Amino acid sequence: FPFRLFPLREHGMNWRAKPLTCQEIQAFRKSKEVMQRFIRAYQLMLRFYGILLVNEETGELKRAENWAERFQNLNRFSHNNLRITRILKCLGEMGYEHYQVHLVKFFLTETLVKETLPNVKRSALDYFLFTIRSKWKRRELVHYAWQHFKPRGSFVWGPHDKLLKYR
Predict the structure, then answer these.
(1) What is the C-alpha to C-alpha distance for residues 69 and 157, in angstroms, rounded to an integer?
(2) Would you name any one GO CC term (predicted)?
(3) How many Cα neighbours within 13 Å face the side chain of 6?
């Protein structure tokens, strides 16, 4: 039957692919082989996007050598943003919340600070940010986005009074 590289507990664009069950997720997470394959698939997709996983333990990322060419592809084809959202959600399902944080921060940095991915900015803010499961980590990233968003007064992803007081 059809399967997904990054399965979720919700239906995606492929109507034939069945959503994961909680039991399947638990079975995947208990299998060392499945989890190693999952990380390899994650690294493969990252390389496709021009990103390298620097540290498997922490989830730290950096630009790959071919980043400029791959970022052109990301800027040109918005369907990649749906895939990235799916990957982020799947990372959370598989217990890699720390990987989620690094990937979202990577995209926030590239879109808001370095301004290399202008066409990914809305997805990073509207979708990627809100895949983060930890409320505290999500708040941290919203604050980071707010700090780098221009013009700051147009930032709509969090209350400005609370962002000003955030520590």
Answers:
(1) 30
(2) membrane
(3) 24
Number of structural domains in the chain: 1
Instruction: Give the range of the structural domain holding residue 91, as residue numbers without chain letter.
Output: 1-165
pLDDT in tens, 81-132: 999 999 999 999 999 999 999 999 999 999 999 999 999 999 999 999 999 9
Q: DSSP letter string over the chain?
A: ----SS--SS--S-TTSPPPPHHHHHHHHH-HHHHHHHHHHHHHHHHHHTEEE--TTT--EEE-TTHHHHHHHHHH-THHHHHHHHHHHHHHHTT-HHHHHHHHHHHHIIIIIS---GGGHHHIIIIIGGG---HHHHHHHHHHHHHH-SSGGG--SS-HHHHHH--
Residues 136-161 have pLDDT tens digits of 999 999 999 999 999 999 999 999 99
